[in-house]
Amino acid sequence: MKAAVITFPGSNCDRDLAVALSQAGADVTRIWHKDDALPDGIDLVAVPGGFSFGDYLRCGAIAAQSPIAGALRAHAERGGYMIGICNGFQVLTELGVLPGALMRNTGLTFLCKPATLRVETRDSAFTAGYAAGQVITVPVAHHDGNYQIAPEGLEALRAEDRVAFTYAPAVNGSVADIAGVLSANRRVLGMMPHPERAADPATGGTDGAALFRGLVQGLATA
Length: 222
Ligand SMILES: NC(=O)CC[C@H](N)C(=O)O
Known about the structure:
two-stranded antiparallel ribbon; EC 3.5.1.2; binds glutamine; EC 6.3.5.3; 23% helix; alpha/beta; 26% strand; single chain; Rossmann fold; nucleotide-binding
């Protein structure tokens, strides 16, 4: 399975994400945002966390105008797999690849702590490595993680079983405690918590590892 990790100026989780994917068995290529195309044969595009372009305008808004942006949108439109973590989730909403928006946390502070998440669906390559309803601990580190979507959008996410993870208890004011959502074709996941920071015992937890393992195994057999 071939994965491309995208780096923007200000990304700071790109290496961790590349390591987590490699440790799960992916063949990982690193891509600089100024490239305007993806290499041939990429199965998964991974958009990492961080502070792309200093979080100016809105988090992810400038990254979504980068030279690589068109290739990312095209990858999603042709049914390619994508994961956006934290700032990566913000970039995917700014690209229009995922619905909704990430707003300032209700407490108006930067939150950096372990969060407990509930796996709401295992019907995706990203969540197939978990049990439905499983509670996992994965760190959050954001000031704009408050997921919001209009009522009809929330209704569609629920009706189509596209809420991947929720916070339990609440963390940042997200509507319905949403921590991660899937695209309509279930091949794009955006999530604010950082599974790549919980994928190796050396960094204090391994609850994120099943996401990368399930993904790599699922795509290898897809
Ligand atoms: N760790 C991150 O990716 C930070 C995300 C984003 N820049 C925020 O603070 O909301």
